[in-house]
Amino acid sequence: MKANASIAEPIKTKKTSKAWKELLMDYQLYLMLLPGLAVLIIFKYFPIYGALIAFKDYNLLDGVMGSKWVGLKHFQSLFSSDKFYSVFINTLLINLYKLVFQLPIPIILALMINEVRNTVFKRFSQSITYMPHFLSWVVVSAIFANLLSPTNGIVNVFIGYLGIDSIMFMTDERFFRAVLVASSAFRESGWSSIIYLAAIMAVDSQLYEAARMDGASKLRQIWHITLPGIRSVIVFIIMLRLGAALANDLEQVLMFYSPMVYNVGDVLGTYVYRIGLGQMKYSFSTAVNLFQSLIGLALVVIANTVSKKFGERGLW
Description:
Elements: H1 2-25, H2 27-45, E1 56-57, H3 63-66, E2 68-69, H4 73-79, H5 82-102, H6 104-115, H7 119-130, H8 137-147, H9 154-161, H10 173-201, H11 205-213, H12 218-229, H13 231-243, H14 250-256, H15 262-265, H16 268-278, H17 282-309
Antiparallel strand pairs: 1-2
């Protein structure tokens, strides 16, 4: 036993000295990493401490540690509330619609931009499609309010020519979710296409040459080479989106919705905002947020497992 211990010790020392040597060799890179790591710890990990108030009756004067423990009281109130189930279903449906209808748009956009051969027009197209991302939701909501105006909006003018009566898209429950998905697609599709364009660039160009030699058309090349080549990136994006399945863009919904569409537009984010800040029920709103985060984590773990099962790369 003593002999084995004496052999293991030099091996361990050798590995440790090798690790230190590698660390010192790339110390500039590790120094560059430190500010980002510090920001992550201060603004992402440290606030997790505040999640404790979901299990307390939080009082501003007593603080987080001084407030009284109440166990799962706020979670019981949450699950016994009819309003919670309504906003939960709204959140799920809006995110499902975004995943189904919004996900293909940046992929198609990236494929189209990639096929443009004129460099000037290609750069112009990219710039035009990226620009909406830099608009705030206030500006985007104003653009959509004008486009969908029941009096002189271009959409209602067009359907008026078809003999259809004007529709109040922004205040009609039947169309409100579609407006949210369309506005989100308008703002984010160009920006999201950057990832797919980068993935397309990494596809081996020899595959295209071989396909052209075999007489494959452009569509065949896209279907059999490009899409399989970026499949892992698509799966990766889907996993990230599933992780945010209960996290609607709060600012977007606040800009678009009104009491007339609360039944279909009220989501977990606005519910927490109204209850937490409006009624000062901090513990209850934290319980909602904690539940939201746990469901998101569970979805990411499931998606990651399924992805690995089908031979794709996982997040870890």
